[in-house]
Structure formats: C-alpha cells, structure tokens
Amino acid sequence: VQLVESGGGLVQTGGSLRLSCTASGFTFSSYVMRWYRQAPGKERELVASISTTSSNTYYVDSMKGRLTISRDNAKNTVYLQMNSLKPEDTAVYYCSARQGLLAYWGQGTQVTVSS
Question: Which residues of the chain have pLDDT under 70?
Fold first, then answer.
C-alpha cells in the first residue's frame, strides 16, 4: 500500500497550489479520501474529505471557499486545489485513505506560504 503526495512547495500569499496524491496497493475507489495538515507545534487537522463517488465533500471552516477536493478513480488519484493561500496555511499536508477503521497515510508534502 502506498500513498504518494506531490505538488507542495513555496508560494507567496494569495497564490495557489494543487496537491496530488496517487495511491497503489488497494482498491482506491472503495476508500474515502481525506487531506490533513499539520503545522509546527499544532495537532494534525482534517482540511478536506471526499466520498468514494465524489458525491459528498467536506471542508474545514478556516479554508472553506479556498479549497476544492476532487478525485479520479481511474487514475487512483485525489487532488486538493488550494487558492488564496495565507501564511497560516503553512503546514505539512497529508493524504489519507479511509474505509471504516482502516486507514492509510502518505508521507506528506510541505506547503510554505510566505508573507
């Protein structure tokens, strides 16, 4: 089982990034996919979630209106489009696959927003 995130980097305030997470080793289309983030000294928090068929999505209030989560089950990939980024969005972003109590995690990708 593997989840590989990409697309992180350094961006100025107001900029955009698109994160990708490509899965292998399990039936991607059967798993709810989530993006979490963890800033230094803070707990990991859920920022977005998408159901198996993309019919339901969730966004954390602090980023609502600036995030779009999507998935392509044919490509085993989930995306997170982030717009109007702020310095407080700086964190390591992780994708996670969930099915009941079973969860897989990626290694994370750093997002740094400069002021």
Answer: none
